[in-house]
Design goal:
3-stranded antiparallel beta sheet; globular; Rossmann fold; 7-stranded parallel beta sheet; alpha/beta; single chain
């Protein structure tokens, strides 16, 4: 089931996604005494994360978090590093956070790092996953044609050109050639195992992907379309991202 909510601005969209996700985290803590969450990165998550860290009603000491992906061979000092992004926008704002398990993309032994992070996530069912989609419809770094069958938690993936052009276009890299061609990504099946998905997608440049993902057939050529089969996927769009939908969602207020 996909629940689609539309807001006027990126700020309203991010605040609404954060409020919904915060309630889901608190509900998981009330139900089980803890919550396991996944945090997304990238430009689409700026407003969501800025709002989420302000939700003081969450008992962050009971939260364990992971992120979706990281470039291979990139140090966490690089401006495009997702570890750096998370430290600046999430963990650095939450001193009481129970734990955050980072993907070490420049680990000297990549296979050992995959085994380590896979084992950690295997022991922790995901309560709430925050995510976005790429201009090519990717989920995390599962670019088309995405692998819909792998059941490991994280794997090495290759980045297709449209994905790499998006990273360059968003200003994370000085040139397209600097964008890495490989990364570690959470797999589609593991993302689908999340109890609740909070999908935040702002900007007109994502409008084509939004239409294909939400209204097109489920296909690995638009990887996020598989979320149509998720039992609790909640989508937060701004007007620009929703502009190409045939069935316009009812406008909501944050």
């Amino acid at each position: 089931m996909i629940d689609i909510r539309q807001y006027t601005t990126k700020s309203e969209t991010g605040e609404a996604a954060a409020a919904f996700g915060a309630q889901a985290i608190s509900d998981a803590i009330a139900r089980r005494g803890l919550a396991n969450i996944v945090i997304a990165t990238g430009a689409s998550q700026f407003e969501t994360l800025a709002a989420l860290v302000m939700h003081e009603e969450i008992d962050w000491t009971r939260v364990t978090a992971f992120h979706l992906d990281e470039y291979i061979g990139m140090p966490d000092t690089h401006p495009a590093s997702f570890r750096r992004y998370i430290k600046e926008r999430f963990t650095g704002k939450l001193p009481t956070l129970g734990a955050f398990h980072f993907i070490d993309g420049d680990a000297p032994d990549l296979q050992a790092e995959l085994e380590r992070i896979n084992a950690l996530l295997d022991r922790r069912p995901i309560d709430v996953m925050f995510a976005g989609i790429g201009e090519n419809g990717h989920l995390a770094f599962n670019d088309p044609p995405a692998d819909f069958t792998s059941t490991v938690a994280f794997k090495v993936v290759e980045l297709e050109e449209r994905c790499r052009r998006q990273q360059f276009g968003e200003g994370w890299f000085a040139t397209l050639d600097e964008v890495p061609a490989v990364a570690i990504s959470m797999t589609v099946q593991r993302m689908m195992s999340s109890r609740i998905v909070v999908l935040t997608v702002p900007d007109e440049r994502k409008a084509e992907a939004v239409r294909e993902v939400l209204e097109g057939p489920v296909t690995n050529l638009w990887p996020a379309s598989i979320l149509q089969q998720h039992p609790a996927c909640h989508v937060f769009l701004d007007l620009a991202a929703a502009s190409k939908l045939t069935n316009k969602p009812i406008a909501a207020r944050a």
